[in-house]
Design a protein that fits this description.
mainly alpha
Length: about 325
């Protein structure tokens, strides 16, 4: 009788969590969509087209990111509630130097964008995975999953070298950053994510519901902050200034690497944006696709909220340098 009651309670909590996830994501998307419609209308009524453009960019980034953020928080909560630590101990090698490339290659299994990878990486750390391996997964998951690679092949038809270049450069960046963190990273730089109240709740459906609510609301706020920052930059900086850099191969790589940070294009869509930048070299466009899923304003904001500002500043800066270097080397080799 007691077992039957436990099973019934578990099913009830699971259904409740599913309803929370679906209704919460739908409500946030609905609110964002309404704001995206009313915002430009209000801006046009006030004769301020730049404000209308700001609303358009802001809501586009937010609407792109919310579904994948929801996916990431569901996966994160499920890992924390239902997956025992011994699973990771069996899958990942004990030595960090070997666990990093395994975790980086495992990024292929999460069909989401960078918004989803941050909460999942935090959950992996809570489950005992070495931070270096979890960070390698964080960087690789949004860049080498099948959805992204297929989108890249569609955006660059007849150019398989762009797909291969993106895969090699992105995976290489993730593995190198994992090894760099294992060698030079300091514990005081990384604020290990904890559940509300400073403790990790016991596993089960109740822990799943608690983790889902906390992670989605917490990360969602930083997603909005990052989207607002990206929208502001895209409006303030004139396009005529960007065109000055297209004549130099090196400056064009650096320019698109910076634009990838501030434009915050979802990894499933950034290949189409890169393909439209026909005035830039293939290596510059590769850098745009490699840097974007690993370092952008909304991702920096999410990392700050999850792991702390000290970590986010250092890790993002180092990742940007490694990603640009990797893109240049792979572009010189393949493109």
């Amino acid at each position: 009788m007691e077992n039957q009651r436990t099973i019934t309670d578990g099913i009830r909590l699971g259904l409740r969590a599913l309803v929370y996830a679906v209704l919460g994501g739908a409500a946030l998307l609905a609110i964002t969509t309404v704001v995206s419609v009313l915002g430009p209308m209000l801006a046009l009524d006030l004769y301020t087209p730049p404000v209308a453009a700001w609303w358009t960019v802001f809501t586009a980034i937010t609407v792109q990111g919310v579904p994948f953020l929801l996916l990431g928080t569901v996966v994160s909560a499920a890992i924390g509630a239902f997956v025992p630590e011994r699973v990771f101990q069996r899958v990942l090698p004990r030595r960090t130097v070997l666990a990093v490339p395994v975790a980086g290659a495992a990024g292929v299994v999460l069909p989401g964008c960078e918004c989803a990878s941050v909460p999942v990486a935090g959950s992996l750390m809570r489950r005992g995975v070495a931070p270096a391996a979890a960070l390698a997964f964080l960087l690789s998951a949004p860049a080498i999953n099948p959805v992204v690679l297929v989108a890249t092949s569609i955006a660059f038809p007849g150019q398989p070298e762009m797909v291969l270049g993106r895969l090699v450069a992105s995976l290489g960046t993730a593995v190198v950053m994992g090894w760099l963190w294992a060698r030079f990273g300091k514990e005081q730089w990384l604020r290990l994510p904890k559940r509300r109240g400073g403790r990790t709740p016991a596993g089960g459906p109740r822990a799943f519901v608690s983790g889902l609510q906390h992670d989605f609301l917490h990360a969602g706020g930083f997603l909005v902050v990052g989207a607002a920052a990206a929208a502001t930059f895209s409006i303030v900086v004139p396009r005529s200034l960007l065109e000055v850099f297209t004549g130099s191969a090196w400056l064009s790589v650096l320019l698109l690497a910076v634009l990838a940070v501030v434009l915050c294009v979802c990894s499933e869509a950034d290949a189409f944006v890169a393909a439209s930048l026909s005035g830039f070299s293939p290596t510059a466009r590769l850098a745009f696709m490699v840097v974007g899923p690993m370092v952008d304003l909304k991702l920096i904001a999410l990392q700050t909220g999850t792991f702390g500002r000290t970590f986010a500043v250092r890790f993002s800066a180092a990742t940007w340098v490694v990603a640009v270097t990797s893109s240049v080397l792979v572009g010189w080799w393949l493109l």
